[in-house]
Amino acid sequence: MSYATYFQENREQHLAELKEWLSIPSISALSEHKPDMLRAAEWLAATLTRAGLENVKVNETAGHPIVTADHLHAPGKPTVLVYGHYDVQPVDPLNLWETPPFEPTIRGDKLFARGATDDKGQVFLHIKAVEAILKQEGSLPVNIKFCIEGEEEISSANLPGFLEANSEALAADAVLISDTSLLERGKPAISTGLRGLCSLEIAINTANTDLHSGSFGGGVPNALHAMVELLATLHDRDGKVLVDGFYDDVLPLSEEMRAEFVKQDFNEQQLQSDLGLEALHGEEGYSFVERVGARPTLELNGVYGGFQGEGTKTVIPKEAHAKITCRLVADQNPQDVLDKIITHLEAVKPNGAKLTITPGEKARAFNIDPSGELLQKAADAYAAVYGTRALFTKDGGSIPIVEEFSRVIAPTVVLMGFGLPDENLHAPNEHFNLENFDKGMLTIVEFLNQV
Amino acid sequence: MSYATYFQENREQHLAELKEWLSIPSISALSEHKPDMLRAAEWLAATLTRAGLENVKVNETAGHPIVTADHLHAPGKPTVLVYGHYDVQPVDPLNLWETPPFEPTIRGDKLFARGATDDKGQVFLHIKAVEAILKQEGSLPVNIKFCIEGEEEISSANLPGFLEANSEALAADAVLISDTSLLERGKPAISTGLRGLCSLEIAINTANTDLHSGSFGGGVPNALHAMVELLATLHDRDGKVLVDGFYDDVLPLSEEMRAEFVKQDFNEQQLQSDLGLEALHGEEGYSFVERVGARPTLELNGVYGGFQGEGTKTVIPKEAHAKITCRLVADQNPQDVLDKIITHLEAVKPNGAKLTITPGEKARAFNIDPSGELLQKAADAYAAVYGTRALFTKDGGSIPIVEEFSRVIAPTVVLMGFGLPDENLHAPNEHFNLENFDKGMLTIVEFLNQV
């Protein structure tokens, strides 16, 4: 039977399986979910085995396990390594979820759950595509390997070491990853660039105790005033980053790159209205897709200090905190950017404030030339299923490990995404559009058959 | 027997009673403590009755009850109305308390509990002083009234109406309040000024959902960036408030006032070291006591938005919040100051930010001439017990109702405080020094006998 018929006949069973996986709260950032991480990895291993993969292993690491498997029975054919992740983002604010994040629910044509699109849902497509070919044909047209980790949302601390230690076992001609998005419904895209990332936390301490704002207000430092004063030096009113040297290794946008961005025909009005925004916002002289695809950014992800409860508390807080991540592009070196930010913060440190800076994650940006053979074949596979050839884009997100894969495993990394940009990844009510669940499996089968 | 002996003999019993009161978590700001508020009021009423007061009533209000009592058997003598409050501040951060806030504990010569010094402990002194005179003499040298409220920490919403509705029943020649502090150990003070207060909350909303910082970072407004940008416009680096017209109704410091402040011989070095501060901080050209006693201030009491958990979350928050209180002096009108702040905030509103401002509490500053007879007698009473006459000071805190009392009940308001400035009021590990517990009761007895 045709693959379309096969997937249709097995659709209910496939969705039931995926829901089972999504119901495991595999939040890698929160230590209390360590047992759930193991359960999610073991679920994955069992499902790979049932699909017909071989050498399925749950590999322990210093953090969360990495699941590997392979099927190497196509001599003379290329080897494709599928990468993805089974860990998910935290879920707060929990009260904004319409249905609980770990009780997967289909509403309309969408599957709602934390991890539905980022990235369990997309990893699942590859397993079921391989299973389908094996069931229909008895063999695979390529050699295939899986390497699925549990620390992508916390910067893949243990994967680089694992790749280097197992570079022979994981050797491949290309790496295939589904952790990105279509441009919009019916408009597929292959990302040829991902932003890098670095993160840091700032703590400001003033007095050794919270103080009464009547007895002390106006005469002692207030940790929140100091934090606000410090953070306000980081951007101008347009969001341009004011840290000295921040843009040093950013390439100016060439006319060719600008032309490629224009091709996306991105509807800024629609985005603004979808997000309920009064206005889009960002560096002057750039469109939205340019700002997100080709410009670095420094975002405050969390700021807090003092009283947050109901009513008023006339307190001068003794401490304040900020969490920051930067998205990096082109040749920006994460360590160099962190050093520059730290130098900046120490130079503008407010009077009476004790400053503690804790650097966090680091990842370089990734870029690939779209004219390579496999990227062209991937675009063709989309064309066969979606009726529209995939565009080559630059994506604003970071998959910190992609640059590592391109260096250690294979220069060719195919970012074949099946999400949509409005699927609330990292936010309440994350979901996955089932249209791309269906077409995603067909596109992967098509691609593997063309490689 | 002497009053000193009487209080010594009853000390254990008195402390046991006070601990009982302090163990009731009468946090007026938190609605879940409404039953505790009633328990605390009823405990007070029972204790006033046992002390020999008459007409003891727990008066219902639209908020928390007001407890009144009197003893009017000294014809031809003045009437003194004692005001105080039985409500307390919230207790977070709870983990910083060495012993739980509502399990009163004596360590060394200090009684630790929320409300120990602000204000249950100080109200208690008046009850026990009156009880002592009645037990020792059988009658009181003055007519006395009590009016103890449960909403001081939330701006006394219902007391002004109560005073106005009951102005005859509460009529008095002077109002006596113990809710302030000695300057330092052994250095008593009578406050002749209190700062006023106004408060507001700011909410900033941007998108209708939290957004992924990879897919959107650099291209959409970030509620935290907007909040930081907004709040940073409120002060210069010294803490001077930059709101247009904020200082319009503030009197410049006269040479006489400056001389009075100098008399306090305040040790700024000591304060800095006690609070573990790198530096004191405030408007240029003013000493600490001038900044706190005679200058207004605008304090951030709480700021929050985005991710506050363990680890990293690459989110662009859709909302951010700030809680602000101002301390006001001289003729500053709280509503006028609020209006000016709101005008300022709306004028500097960042691009793409929806701004919601919720005004809160309002109270005028209070000032009294120290040369009046009763204030002089109060200073003498301290001299008799402490061996040092009380200094007349300006206090940085606000007791929003004092100005109301001086207008509705009696122009003479005697602020006879027995706290110490480092007793952590409004902070973890609030406590009351028992030296002033003992001397406080004696001073009140001395004062009532001299009136």
UniProtKB/TrEMBL annotation, chains A, B:
Domain of life: Bacteria
Every Peptidase M20 dimerisation domain range: 192-352
Protein name in UniProt: Peptidase M20
Pfam families: M20_dimer (PF07687), Peptidase_M20 (PF01546)
GO molecular function, one term: peptidase activity
Entry keyword Metal-binding: yes
GO biological process: proteolysis
Record PANTHER family: BETA-ALA-HIS DIPEPTIDASE (PTHR43270), SUCCINYL-DIAMINOPIMELATE DESUCCINYLASE (PTHR43270:SF12)
Keyword tags: Hydrolase, Metal-binding, Protease
NCBIfam families the UniProt entry points to: PRK07907.1, PRK08201.1, PRK09104.1
